[in-house]
Write the structure tokens for this entry.
Amino acid sequence: MSATSAHAFNFYDVARRAKELSNEKFKAPTSALPRELRDLKFADYQQIQLKREKYHWADNKSPFELVFHHQGMYFDLPIKINEVDAEGVREIKYDPNDFDFGPRKPDAKALNNLGFAGFKVLYPLNNSKKPDDEIASFLGASYFRVIGKGQQYGISARGLAIDTAVPSGEEFPRFREFWVSRPANSDKHIVIYALLDSPRATGAFRFTITPGEDTTVDVKSRVYLRAPVAKLGIAPMASMFLYGSNQPTTSSNFRSELHDSDGLAFHAGNGEWLWRPLNNPRRLSTSSFGMENPKGFGLQQRGREFSRYEDIDDRYETRPSLWVEPSGNWGKGRVELIEIPTADETNDNIVAFWVPENQPKPGAALDLDYTLRFTRNEAKLQDPKLARVIQTLRSAGELKGADLIRRADGSLALMIDFTAPATARKNDPRVPVSLSFSNNGNADVMENSLRHNPVTGGWRVTLRLKVKDPTKPVEMRAALVNGQTQVSETWSYQLPANETAE
């Protein structure tokens, strides 16, 4: 990009470059990272920090500052970062002398022209007198993380996903260049443009980040394909689920739950609200939910009580939910959920995104705009008239004998707690509600009951079932109804294959 006035620079300048790139043969980036920095462990990599006096915009009155990530570990490819202001567009130059490398002293010659790996955005989010609150970080491929007030990093967003969980292998598009508009001193938002590139796709993105109780990112995107792909993932997100109340751990751990997200929620174009508790399966699992013109979807962390985690270091109860709010009609497609086996909480094993039914032909533009909302107030996203699932509990099934002793009966038990629907809150909560339940036929249902939960004021569903074929999954759906009217979101749960096999 040549220097020009800031007012002349906009999303379409980046889109034009993405279009040009799509007509060119992909050129794979090369890494010049010295081995000393490539072989770092994560804790060592974190010691490499930009010096405080080198924070970008630290010398003015803007509430925003930029801090650059140095290359290291697998963050080994350079990205170009430009600043846009009233004087034009210019590159922010990398200088190894701007960084503190901790106890190591890398060869200065090996660092010349190395380049940045990414950057983070600072803003006084939690305290007006504390300017160093990190609200966003762009680092690695097309990944970025964002948080709101009182939140800690957990779930990640991505620019684009290509062929995730496809046997031929996933392609990871990367942001190769950024343009960051310098905010005015009074601005409460920051605008970032990004150019995406990969062997089969290019793209232009504009991110308008507005920090707050919920931090929002308004995304304008245009994607071009160089060649057809098997699966195009729009507004993708990645999270971690190791174990939780619906899939308890078998190891001894003081944390009874360990996850950044515990379920997938969506609001379909036909008005249905659905909640899908997450699993850490033994084998890769893909679930698809077809719909037209989705109104919203995302991975949520509904377990907000500290007692679920008891972790004073990682504070999983503060991890944000990520909700995608499409702009306009997205047409036909599906929300896809991918669950990948993992034995480690450091691995993101949950992926969700929108897959359009018709992908653009090579050279044609796909324009999809949306808002990303990073929030801890999941209830506010949903129709207040509908009951929500607040937890799913799983254990061995048991029956209470005549002697009042509970004994395991070889079944599997699930307890689902719903809040009370609005129609029941106004009257006797025990009167108007009944249960609608179904499964895919791979289980004998021993119990299927509904009763008022006097502690929560809502309703508890109790299911006991015996799996017929443990090598196949059991799919279940449950909802609260008042006559023929559904008064809750739909609980949709998959008991993965081999979960009960010996």
Remarks:
- The longest strand covers residues 406-418.
- The two ends are 61 Å apart (CA to CA).
- Helices lie at 11-22, 35-38, 42-45, 108-111, 378-381, 422-425.
- Residues 470 and 499 are 7 Å apart (CA to CA).
